[in-house]
Amino acid sequence: MKLPKGFLASGVRAGIRKKRPDLALLVAEKGANAAALFTKNRFQAAPVILGRRDLARSRGRVRAVVVNAGCANAVTGKPGLDAARRVRNCAAALLGFPKEEVIVSSTGVIGVVLPDAKIRAALPDAKWRLSPSGLDAASHAILTTDVGPKVAQASFAWMGRRGRVVGVAKGAGMIHPNMATMLVFVMTDVPATPAYLKTALRGAADVSFHLVSVDGDTSTNDTVLLMASGALGGPELAAVDDGPEFRKALAEVCRTLAWKMVRDGEGATRVLDLTVTGARTETEAKAAAHAVATSLLVKTALHGGDPNWGRILAAVGRSGARFSEKRVSLRLGPLTLVKDGSPAPYREKDAVRIFRRERVKVVVDLGAGTATASKLSSDLGHDYVSLNADYRS
Predict the structure, then answer these.
(1) Confidence tier at 393 by pLDDT (50, 70, 90)
(2) Of the ranges 209-223, 261-275, 303-317, which one carries the lowest mean pLDDT score?
(3) Model confidence at 390: pLDDT above 60
(4) Are 254 and 186 in contact (CB under 8 A)?
């Protein structure tokens, strides 16, 4: 997949991981305005701490992103922060960019200081391999337990021209708002101010990355970075209501990446596409959806293809949402399984067939109001336990 105008990418092997590529480089040739969302975990990794500071110092300007897999460089204190700085400074000197316009990002095992010498030694190769078609190599180099790379694109109209949004992501475990063990880098050629990008990114994340859950854990390294090269030309998007087509394309890319992360949840075979309607407030709708999406009993039933709707209602019942159980209904795809708090007539084999699909759509109507909320959640099976039990071995 070709990158939007103004961007280059590459992926190489630095030797942090035993066999796979583990270092990606993204470059905005003439610079980009940018905005980012970072983890809310109190144990923030060194690259997150450094990235926050540098993005503020550069006033939302980014020239390059250095991403490594195999080592999170989290909970590593001053040595970890110094290692991240050395990578940033090396990349800045190599590319001829101001150091505060170079973002570093890491993913992998927590508690290990980044072996920055390996990255610094590999950066010249990463620079040499930079290409407008380098996204495929970069998408492989940022993976950890992911089954495969995650990329998405969408186009939009702007001032008589066609612009593009392209995103690349990694994430399979530690997936939970806000946000997840995800690294997401979204690039576009539209001209836009950093403030506008911040608002647009928050809106896109609210309908994508903030709606997903794999295992209920929030990582130390979560980063979602949006960069706009402005190479498309024309006036900058600045007002909140500017560029509705761009915001639609951005949301589409983010939703696609979010879906791919949940579908690639460690050991996942199915995705629960859950909607809670009829809640008294949005807060209560979100609470009910959260309870279902994170229920181990629901997730294991999903893995087994067992339409055990009692587990779903039990999770709703403990969520704190206010409703009358006599007004609750539950639909599985086109099938109504529960109506007004009682089992509805349906054929079990029809429910099983739907529950064994790759994407299982469930709607719970609380019958108490008009508020709604949605969640994407993966199943939980034997492979998840095996993979995470052996993660460091």
Answers:
(1) very low
(2) 209-223
(3) no
(4) yes
- Assess whether 39 carries a catalytic annotation: no
C-alpha to C-alpha distance for 385 and 387, rounded to whole angstroms: 6
Does the structural domain 271-389 have CATH classification 3.40.50.1980? Answer: no
Looking at residue 225, what is its pLDDT? 97
Instruction: From 110, 314, 307, 282, select the one nearest 210 (Cα to Cα).
Output: 282
Residue from 144, 181, 188, 256 carrying the catalytic annotation = 181
Domain ranges within the chain, ordered by starting residue: 7-263, 271-389
* pLDDT more than 90, % of the chain: 72
Q: Are 270 and 357 in contact (CB under 8 A)?
A: yes
- Please return the burial class of 30, using the count of CB atoms within 10 Å of its CB with bins 0-12, 13-18 and 19+: exposed
The position carrying tokens 């709606």 is 211
- What residue type is assigned to position 113 of the chain? V
Q: What is the CATH number of domain 7-263?
A: 3.60.70.12
